[in-house]
Every structure is written in C-alpha cells, then in structure tokens.
Peptidase
Amino acid sequence: MQPTPSYPIGTPGQPWGDAERDQWRARQVRQRSHAEDVLRAIDALRSQWDVLPYGEVAYANTHHAPEHFPLQALRSHPWQPGLPSVLVTGGVHGYETSGVHGALRFAQQHAAEFAGRANLLVVPCVSPWAYERIQRWNFDAIDPNRAFKEGSPAQESAALMQLVAQHQAQYGPFAAHIDLHETTDTDESEYRPAVAARDGKVFEPGSIPDGFYLVDDTENPQPAFQQSIIDAVGRVTHIAPADDKNEIIGSPVVAPGVIRYQLKAWGLCASVSGARYTTTTEVYPDSPRATPEQCIAAQVAAVCAAVEFVCGAQ
C-alpha cells in the first residue's frame, strides 16, 4: 500500500499558525473575475429584479494588497406579501462553479415563471475571493460552509446571516432555502488533505460520488421535498448511486440520491434561514457522464423544482 503523501504546507501533526496560512495564501492564484462574471450579470438584471447590496468582503494583511468585494443579492420585484418566499444561495464554496452560474441562470431565464406565485431572494456568489481563486476556503483558510454560526469568523458567512436576518425581520420567514454546491475531484486531491494539514490531523482518503445528490436536514427531514428535486434533476443528469455500504460520502443513503446532515450543528449554509424546506445540492462536474453545462442545468432544475414544490405546498 502506498503511503499517503503529506500536504506541502505545515508540519505533520501540528495545526497551522499564521506562517502556514500565509504560505497557503501565496499558493492561491486569481484565475477569474467576480466583477466580470457575477456583478456584471447581476447588473444586467436590474430591470427585472431589485439588486440588493448587503456589504462587502475585505481582505488584507502585511503580505497582501487590500482586496474588496461587493456582496450583492437579487430580490423579487415587487416583493408580494402572502406569497411563499424562497432563498437561493450559490458560491458558498467559490470553486463550485455550477452553483454560482446555476443561481444566475435561474434568475436570468426561469424566475419569471414564478412571478405572482413566489418571492425569491437569490445570492449567486457568497464567497467572491474564493470564486476568483477557484478555492473552497476564504482568505483566512476558513471553510465558510462550517461557519454559519453566531460570532462567525468568516466574513462571507456573517454577511449572509445578517442579510437573511434583516430580510426576515422585514418580510417574514422563508418557506424554503436551496443551497447550490458541487463535489469535485479536488476534494480528495487538495481540499481534504489541506484540512488535515491545517488541523494537524492525518488525511484519510475517501471517495467521490459520481452524480447528483442532496443533503437533507437530520433535525427536520423533508423527504417529499427532496424527492421532487431528485425527480426533476434525474431528467437532466444522473443521480449518484450509493456505495457498497449504502452510503454517500460516509453518510447513509435515506432515499435514492439523498443523505442527511445536522445542518445547524455543523454550521452549514442551508441552516441559515430556519426554513421548513431546506436542501443542499451536490453535482459532480468531473464525472465522465456529465459536462459542466449539464451541471449548471442540474442546478437550475433543482431550484425550479424546489420553488414549484413550495408553491404547491401552500
């Protein structure tokens, strides 16, 4: 058996300090533009949506030039009292491309189908620094999708939590929240080894599911909601099968393509609204059976199915 290679930063068995985090930052290369890909697309939708600035992410230290990223959301115009409200989030992990572009495409091409039936708040790119670097973590080597908790150390997570709290105080609760993600080969080649190195632990290799799956809430399971999304996405791309333990990424499969996590306890984005219907999507863009375009289409199909379900549930 081949030994597991060590991550190139840090000392095995010792958690990272400031020096190691700075080494990690030095490896992150800007590869695309949040302003061009996301903010420009949002700006083009001003005639159809309210564009809602909700803060900015700002990063700098003694070794890095300051960077500022405006945070923007799209809100149904007009917001209509009495209709069910749905929150759509993408890009919590910046490297998960189809979540960002799936949220934008839904806003561009499909949201009008629900006019007069549902109110929508769409946040296409929660983590812009990571989007530009095609990274999972933020500048501080924090995973935003474990940081949706009181006193969050992640600027991105704290800003979204504040947006949702303020929005719900003004307009009332959300009926549903769908959070758009990907599982990629780099989860095994880069991210999970980096987590182990950062935390001073031993990396234990896992496997990547081939296909689309959903993460329901252990504390608030909604099987009919999850099934409606699986049915819709199955017409666009393939659903991830269970492994030989009847699991997907170490969690028992409770229905085809569905597992459950403790969303709030883990600080996951899908817990942020406290909505009755919540889910996290996962597509696999590195699959030989799917293209990046199919992954975006799968995200759009998932959002459409989620909103349609909520409209029918009222």
